[in-house]
Structures are given as structure tokens and as C-alpha cells.
Amino acid sequence: MPSAPLPVVEIRSVANAQNEWVALLLGMPGAGLDDPALQDLFGTPDLLAAIAPLDCIVHVDDATVFTPPVLNVLPANRVLLAVRADALATDGTARRLAELQLAGYRVLIDGPLPEGVAAPVGLRTVARDARLELPRAAALPALFGPHLAYHVDDMARYGACENAGFSWFSGDYALEGSVPDGDDGTSRRRMLTMLALLARDADSHELEAQLKQDAILSYHLLKLVNSAAFSVGAQVTSFSQAISRLGRRQLQRWLQLLLYARQHPDGPPNLMLPLAALRGAALEAACRNEGGDRDEQDLAFMAGVFSLLDRLFRMPMAEVVQDLNLPEHVEAALLRRDGQLGQRLRLVESGRPDPATLEAAGVEGPDWWQSLLHAYHWAIQVARNV
């Protein structure tokens, strides 16, 4: 584990229009990464190895941070540079960014250009805070791209960004639940029944009987078990085989995640799936790092995954958990973010591991960093196999 303190940096996922994660966004304007933070984050191969094949987009406030030691740890084929547009008012910045682009870096100009400053020739990929005024509709497709919109916090803003020509998106729009077309509540009731069965460690035959009532969940389970992640030769064609292949512990884990699978086999992925996987894996790793046993790790994983069920079902969390008979500390974490588990859930939700939140969660910065790297690696693999 790294000995240096974890840089306090905001970390957010970035998805394309097909709801696939494509990159991680590190830092924000006004709190961009500086020279020491960049060297701490990229000075070891851990980060880029963990999130492969995703790229990293690093926010900086000006181009002076791109010193030779920093560039030595930023591989141009994996790292995009998002630089505040205000920096272009400083002499030499446009030339420096053009040099970086010639060296193979992809450079995004973040924000509107300062008054009186012309767009640099060759630097025509943009990033923009979606909470502010966006470029006019269809203004961006003629530029290089892909263009990034961040702080995209609802689907209405997502639509406006897409109309403007952005194709990479980051924000809470990913947390908006979706109710299947024509759903009369039957699907939701079946899913809640499955949750109750999982929470009380139900018999395999009960799980199999419930699975047979949900064609979409059944489809995704069999697809998963037959994927490259699990395949050992013989194709799995029945639920009993799936249960046998996975084992009860892994079956429960995957069924918890598969609740977030796409609503239709040929539909786009649900962006809540990798987010739920990230939360579950991060909380499980933190529990394991402090010596928690397998049962405690499973409960930590469950808390992370279940923390998005209110969003998925579009109903209060209190209604979701009322029939699940969860342990008291898990329920307290889900309902009020109480207790150590609740504080850790708050930490992974925040995307920004500041010292005060780390202390409240009872974890050290380097330990949490390793937990996050593990969680992102696992969530990326989940999203690629479901």
C-alpha cells in the first residue's frame, strides 16, 4: 500500500451515450490537480492498471503543472488533460497546450473562452459544467471531440447536453431510476421478493422458483454464468446448474447486482449497475482491510449494493427495507447513513475522500485508496460482463 497520504481529489465516472463507462474524471475546476497530487496519483502503476481499459481525465487550473516529472507519469494514451479556459488568457498557455497535443495528449478546453481570446488552432475539444450555459444546439459536432459535460445532474440536463453535441457525460443523471414500460408493479414486487429471499439466506429451491417468474433476471443470470468471467467449458442451461456453478455466496452477490441489469435484453446498460458494484466492493474491501469476517464483508457488500434501490424502484428506502429483515446496523446505514457502515457509505457516495469524512468512517487514506482501486477494477469488469 502507498505510504504517502491520499490526495484529496474528487473522482467521478464518465459514460458515453451508450451508457458505458469510458473514463474517470479526477478533480474539478477551482480544485484542479497540482504537481504533487498528480505525481502521488500516477507515480505508481496502481491507478491506471486498476481502471484499464478506461482512461483518466485530469482537471487542472493552468498548464504550469505539466512539468517534465509530471508528464513522465502521465501516459498520453491513457490520460486526457482538461484545462480551464481562463488559463488561455495567460501568455504562453495556448502554445504549451498545442505542444502537449503534438506530444500525443488529448486536451479539453474547459469552459467558455475569456473575452478577447480566440480559440487556439488545433485545440478544439471542450469540457463544460452542465450547470452553466451550454453551447447552442449542434454547435460541437464539427469539432474534434469527444466533448465532456460534467455535473449532468438529471435527464433533462443530459438531453440538453446531448443536443449541444456532447458525447461524454458525468453526473447524477446516472442515478435516475427507470420503470419498465407498461410495468404495473408486478416486476417490482418480484424483485422485492427476491431481495427478501436473499436477505434471509433462502433455500436454493426458493430462489430458483422466484427466478423462473422473472424472465429478464433469469436471462441475465444465465448470460453471466456463461460469460468469459465464469466459463469453464460446459454451457449452463438451467438455474440449478447456475446455482451449482456459482455457489450460494456468489449467487446471492450476483443476484443483488443483477437487480440493476438493463430492463430489456437488447436495451442500453443501466448506469446504476457499475455504481452499485463500486459501492458494494468498496465497502466490502474496507471491511476486509480491518479484519472483518466473511459474513461481515457480505453485509458491507449488501449495504453498498442496496443503497441505490430507492433510486432504482423510485420509492422511499424505508419502504424498500421494511420487509427485508436486515441487521440493525445495515438498516441504519441505508436509512440514515448512521454508524461506521453508514459513514463509509457516505464516503463512497461523496466521490471526494476529504480527511474529515475519512476520520468519521474510521479508515486511513491509503487504505481507502486501495479499497477504491479494487472497487473500480471490479465494477468495470462487472459492467463488461452483465
- CATH secondary-structure class of the largest domain: Mainly Alpha
**Strand order of the main beta sheet, please?**
1-2-3-4-5-6-7-8
Architecture of the largest domain, according to CATH?
Orthogonal Bundle
Through-space gap between termini: 30 Å
Q: Please, what is the average pLDDT?
A: 86
Q: What's the CATH H-level homologous superfamily of the largest domain?
A: Hypothetical protein af1432
SSE class: alpha/beta
Report the β-strand fraction as a percent range.
5-15%
Return Rg in Å: 22 Å
Order of helices and strands: EEHHEHEHEEEHEHHHHHHHHHHHHH
Number of β-strand runs:
8
The third-level CATH topology of the largest domain is: Hypothetical protein af1432
Count structural domains: 2
What's the number of helices?
Answer: 18
Shape: globular
Helicity, as a percent range: 40-55%
Could you give a short account of the major beta sheet? 8 strands, mixed, barrel
Uncertain stretches of 5 or more adjacent residues? none
